[in-house]
């Protein structure tokens, strides 16, 4: 089982063929168009099996399967914390075997709870549902941006996940600390000298034990298409 997460930086209809070369079973794509409302026939034909949410038809988050016989069922998890709606989170059930939570965090017009704060809020109301779940996506966050006067920093979120047995697969494989990543996933304004690690796979021990390999895409392969590179996870079958 191979799963990819990638922020395509828009216009996915022009880029899906490039990511398809990876030959994954599941693609979690941020900033992609809604295939249902896209006039590009090749993209619509490729996206035969998918789930998608977004604020408008041109930019949202989608979970796509290359296997037409793979069942993707959207889960009814709460997007509201204390009457405030958070975004973007796309939970789904895969073949009634495990869950994937697609993530693309936003500022969401919040002066205090933007980006990782959005995920922190989502976590408070959905944490008990995360058993047997792979969390994948663009978190727009890293512990290097922790602030001393917040209780929902990146490090706090990672600690809360760890307390429930959910870990970052990248950090487990490469034995690196949060904030000390040597393989960036994002290049600010596509500049080689502005690298950051802000995309992640999180999962519990049932997936960590089956992890075959995790790879981070190379900048020279992807920089013409996006300011992000994909992360590819491959798992042994149970």
From TrEMBL:
One Pfam family name from the record?
A: Exo_endo_phos
Q: Which domain of life is it from?
A: Bacteria
Domain Endonuclease/exonuclease/phosphatase residues, every copy: 4-207
Gene Ontology molecular-function annotations? endonuclease activity
SUPFAM superfamilies the UniProt entry points to: DNase I-like
For this protein, the record's InterPro entries field holds: Endo/exonu/phosph_ase_sf, Endo/exonuclease/phosphatase
The transmembrane segments are none
Entry keywords, A to Z: Endonuclease, Hydrolase, Nuclease
This chain belongs to the protein called Endonuclease
The organism's lineage is: Bacteria, Pseudomonadati, Bacteroidota, Cytophagia, Cytophagales
